[in-house]
Amino acid sequence: MAEEAPILAAEHVSLRFGGVRALTDVSFSVRRGEIFSIIGPNGAGKTSMVNCVSGRYRPTEGRVLFEGQDITRLGPNRRASLGIGRTFQNLALFGHMSVLDNIMVGRHHLLKTGLLRGMLYWFGGAQKEELEHRREVEEIIDFLEIQHVRKAPAGTLPYGLRKRVELARAVAVRPRLILLDEPMAGMNLEEKEDMARFIVDLNEEWGMTVLMIEHDMGVVMDISHRVMVLDFGRRIAEGQPEEVLADPHVRRAYLGEADEVTQPAEEVV
Amino acid sequence: MATVSLLPAGDYRTTYRADTTIFPTRNSRIALWLGIALVAASPLFFGRYELSLLINIGILGIAALGLNILVGFTGQISIGHAAFFGVGAFASAWLHDRFLIPVWACIPLAGLITAVVGIVFGAPAARLKGLYLAIATLAAQFILEDFFARSAWFTGGVAGRITEPLTLFGFAFDREESYLYVVLFYVVLMYLAAANLMRTRDGRALVAVRDHYLSAEIMGINLAYYRTLSFGIASLYAGIGGALYAHYLMFVSVEAFNILFSIQFLGMVIIGGLGSIMGSLMGAAFMVLLPEVVQTAAEALAGGAIDRALKLGASISYLREMAIGAAIIAFLIFEPDGLAHRWRLVKAYWKLYPYSH
């Protein structure tokens, strides 16, 4: 694949629910290896856009291309094996499973063991496969610093840790593109710093392209390579963080035309 | 939770293999072998009646485990489990009579046939959830019951079907003392298979579908496939249980597999503990033994001082029925997580005794 080809491209995507226009003619592309953020006021269609990429919603019009392949009509469960992973805005862990099992679910499409071989466990290679993947999963656990809770049921963990487990589960899919829906929501400063560091590491060391929705403008401006702004389902700006920040439309729609917009580190909304 | 706290201090896992065993501690493994050995030795000290209770627990336990995989692990519902149990029973008898397949081979084959039937009737599960699915499975119950009554070629019609005992190398397992080992073999086999399933890919997928189907789908899990598969697995277990039942009683009648029996299976998995493998066996044991215990109590009561004072007389037998119902209700109120959970609590208590803080 050519260097310039985008890993993800949305072409004129529109999404309507009856008369409600969630997205109108949104086009953007995410380049391989970048951190791309989508920002915008509540209800602007950010999560709808991510849902179109992850397959939860099917765009009414337009196309979504992943690595040049049209995935608009592909079922959500098929996209994991293509290399798309995601986390959710509201926690979506498997509450009664242990953290370890949660992350192992992320390996689903990489595991070959079927029903029969699973039942036979010791014969037929299921055990061998489990242990191999366990090793890789432990690396992810190590990276996200959740060793101490690996056996705890995910539903019993505090919020910040659950967010991290969710990230671990998405990483376990071994995605080339990872979609993060508000990874910092509801976190304190320290947890946000940790999370920002994880995202940057995922991008730089693990080589994942990141598509992120986030309200914390400080984080968005610090770590994103490019930013797109949505408002009422329309794309109103896209570009480098500084450009977007300076855009008068963006200020009016989202950041607010406050006295001075010279303090981007402040959280808006 | 429990798994962590139940490991003795200083018991550190140094390999991933040691960390993925079904029975985490040495004591639990000893208890397992001891339990199997006790059951295997039980013909030495139990009469035929007690053995028949054990056999029933085993057979129902296998079928209940199937239902638990469906209800407890995958979060679906079925009120037609007894019908699948019946399919297994008739299929095994029919295979033997019609194709002269030896009984030992009929039992697993009947399981497979039932699994196919289960997948067909479970197909709505790919679309339906909750109460809607319950009604769909209720339809399966009635359709199959009707089928049993009408298809004399398969079930012997209203007269029922006589079945042959299981024979292996000329030895007939036609008595409680010998059939117990057949059931024990299948219990160990099916429970191990379920435990293995639950720690590998497909088992995790089932639980993931239960806990959060939207994110399960994003993780690459095909919801329709796993929802239907879970019906297939449940029916496989029901079919094998049914086949064992058929060759134990040596007679299968059409009326046996009614909706009450289906509800009883649901009672077993709820009382035993939804989403617990050993809980299924505990629930089956509870359901089989509770009437026995109450019966013994009723017999002790009959003719006693209380009986005379209250003039109970014949109504003792009604009391017995009510006591069973009351016990189940009390159970659901005081231990909604089932016997398996209570057992964990008991273990945790003794682990820390006498320093429980």
Automatic annotation (TrEMBL), chain A:
The lineage of its organism: Bacteria, Pseudomonadati, Pseudomonadota, Alphaproteobacteria, Acetobacterales. One of its GO terms (cellular component) is plasma membrane. GO terms for molecular function: ATP binding; ATP hydrolysis activity. This is ABC transporter ATP-binding protein. Residues 8-257 form the ABC transporter domain. CDD domains: ABC_Mj1267_LivG_branched. Keywords: ATP-binding, Nucleotide-binding, Transport. Signal peptide: none annotated. InterPro entries: AAA+_ATPase, ABC_AA/LPS_Transport, ABC_transporter-like_ATP-bd, BCA_ABC_TP_C, P-loop_NTPase. It holds the Pfam family BCA_ABC_TP_C. It comes from the Bacteria. PANTHER family: ABC TRANSPORTER ATP-BINDING PROTEIN, CONSERVED COMPONENT OF ABC TRANSPORTER FOR NATURAL AMINO ACIDS-RELATED. SUPFAM superfamilies: P-loop containing nucleoside triphosphate hydrolases. PROSITE patterns: ABC_TRANSPORTER_2 (PS50893).
From TrEMBL, chain B:
Pfam families: BPD_transp_2 (PF02653). Its main location: membrane. Keywords: Cell membrane, Membrane, Transmembrane, Transmembrane helix. It is found in: Cell membrane. GO terms for cellular component: plasma membrane. It is a multi-pass membrane protein. The chain crosses the membrane at residues 30-47, 53-71, 101-123, 130-149, 178-198, 229-250, 256-277, 312-334. GO terms for molecular function: branched-chain amino acid transmembrane transporter activity. InterPro entries: ABC_transp_permease (IPR001851), LivM-like (IPR043428). PANTHER family: ABC TRANSPORTER PERMEASE PROTEIN, HIGH-AFFINITY BRANCHED-CHAIN AMINO ACID TRANSPORT SYSTEM PERMEASE. This is Branched-chain amino acid ABC transporter permease. It comes from Falsiroseomonas bella.
